[in-house]
Amino acid sequence: MPRVKRSVAARKKRRKVLEQARGYWGLKHSSYRRAKEQVDHSLVYAYRDRKVRKRTMRSLWIIRINAAARQHGLSYNQFVAGCRKAEIELDRKVLADLAVSDPAAFGVIAEQAKAALQG
User: Fold this and answer.
1) pLDDT, mean of each 10-residue run, the chain (119 residues)
2) Rg, C-alpha atoms of the chain
3) Contact at 8 Å (CB) between 68 and 105?
């Protein structure tokens, strides 16, 4: 069986990991073994937190919608139920943006939701 020389491939693999570990504290940015361990953890955290970001943003949107709806005499769940009855099909992201950037437009939607609940 022929002899396999691996130095080029191995060096390339290690250099890739050490480049990903730039900016890490202590030996984690210079020692291959420590860097590889930390890069593996970091990739896991990044994957997990991309999912978590979606949850936290939705939570933030709900908080903003609730605060704006309460200024118009509605709770969050009353507002959402009124929007469903009034057939207003705006998602939470758009509603939260309206609540922050254009309160007058949000007020119109809130009045329509309130009217749909009463009617």
Assistant:
1) 89 96 96 97 97 97 97 95 94 96 96 92
2) 26
3) no
Question: Would you say 114 and 73 are in contact if contact means Cβ atoms under 8 Å apart?
Answer: yes
CA dist 53 and 68 (Å) reads 23
* Cβ contact 79:105 at 8 Å: no
Token duo for residue 51: 């999912």
Alpha-carbon distance 21 to 23, whole Å? Answer: 6
Q: Could you tell me the pTM of the whole model?
A: 0.77
**Residue 25 DSSP class:** S
User: In residues, how long is the chain?
Assistant: 119
Residues 112 and 82 sit within 8 Å (Cβ to Cβ): yes
- Tell me the backbone φ, ψ of residue 5, rounded to 5 degrees: -100, 120
Paired tokens of 19? 């480049």
Phi, psi of 51 (to 5 degrees): -75, -40
DSSP state of 28: G
CA-nearest of 66, 12, 18 to 39 is 18
